[in-house]
Structure prediction request, 150 residues.
Amino acid sequence: MRRHPAFRGLLLAAALLLLAACSSSHVLTGNPRPPIDPSQVRIYYGPPPGGYEEIARLDVSSGALTYGEQNKTNSVLAKLRREAARLGANGVLFQGTADGHGGNNVSVGGGVGRGGGRSFSSVGVGVDISPTQKYANGIAIHVPNPPPEE
Prediction:
């Protein structure tokens, strides 16, 4: 079965959109270490006692299809942990979150035409129910002697 070339382009565009929806990035500011398991990465909301070594600045987003504030927060925290773990950081110094724009839009359109001696009209309604994304940033850090978990 042969597919139309536009179909291939549509599949490529959809794949790129999905990749962009799962975006996370980092900027190295120190020396990365061997990767570790994300479950070993702790989130710090203030500088840990005893100091730390900065490894990278992290930026992540919740994803295009994540609904609910708690789910969005859980998503960005998990992505911060995963990105830090790839760099060998055992901690993330949390910097904050921001909400994206968009979502929950309704559009209405209409048209009238005439062709072949006949007239016709149409009305269309489009609804965008995609949620707004949550963005978070943090600093991937290595803590030499992490304090015990409370």
Q: What stands out?
A: The beta strands are 24-28, 42-44, 53-61, 91-99, 105-115, 118-128, 134-142. Confidence is low (pLDDT under 50) at residues 15-21.
